[in-house]
Design brief:
- This protein is α/β, with parallel strands linked by helices.
- It has one domain (about 5-225): Spore Coat Polysaccharide Biosynthesis Protein SpsA, Chain A (Alpha-Beta Complex), CATH 3.90.550.10.
- Helix content is about 40%, strand content about 15%.
- The protein contains eight helices and seven strands; from the N terminus they run E-H-H-E-H-E-H-E-H-E-E-H-E-H-H.
- The chain has helices at about 20-25, 30-45, 65-70, 90-100, 120-125, 165-175, 195-205, 215-225; strands at about 5-10, 55, 80, 105-110, 135-140, 145-150, 180-185.
- Strands 3-2-1-4-6-5-7 form a seven-stranded mixed sheet, with helices on both faces.
- Helix 1 crosses helix 2 (about 30-45) and helix 2 (about 30-45) runs antiparallel to helix 8.
- The longest helix has 18 residues, at about 30-45.
- It is globular.
Amino acid sequence: MIRETCLIVFTRFPRSGMSKTRLAQELGDKIAIQLHQAFLKDIFSRFANRDFDLVVAGATGDTEEEFHKLAENCGTFDWFFLPSGTTMCDQIISSYRIALSRYKKAILTASDIPQFTHRHVRQMFTNLEEFDVIFHMNHDGGTCPQAMKVAHDLFTHTTEISLNHCREWKDRLELLGLRYKLVSEILIDIDTFDDLRIFYHWQNLLGSDSNMFCPITMGTIRKALSL
């Protein structure tokens, strides 16, 4: 069956010196790699049963075989590609252009947002019936995950590591005359040690009230925090 929608996981293969570099400054390279692996394994497992294609957008030097090996015993994905561009912004818009040449709707998420679940995917795909762009705000001002039907360049010349980033997005969307929806639920993007602690304690407070599924990530965080 040919599917019309996809979820793009925008990431790189976990390797020394390249994985979660800000976390590595606090926790060391080995633990940063283990956390990155855990994020990806939980994504493959969480979305093992799906009615959309799961697509991996890797980085220069990554191979499809590496990701398939990482996904063993967790799940699998449907397609792998390497986006073009020298900056993250270039590579994100390239990922949308490649995916939307094949699918009618695409969601793009980073690997390090464990709160992102099937519920969010369904909501975003449904909202794309009415809007051109859907996005969540992250606790640090980012705008991920996002969803589009057309690859609008909302990324070039924006300051993605900034609390002003979400405001820049809204201003650009309004300038382009695009219909957009900012989802009210804020998601935690784990880039730093403080992010890791916030996420872990938030999840513990929710307990059984959370529908998040990331057991490998939670176990790895407990080890990293010596809990």
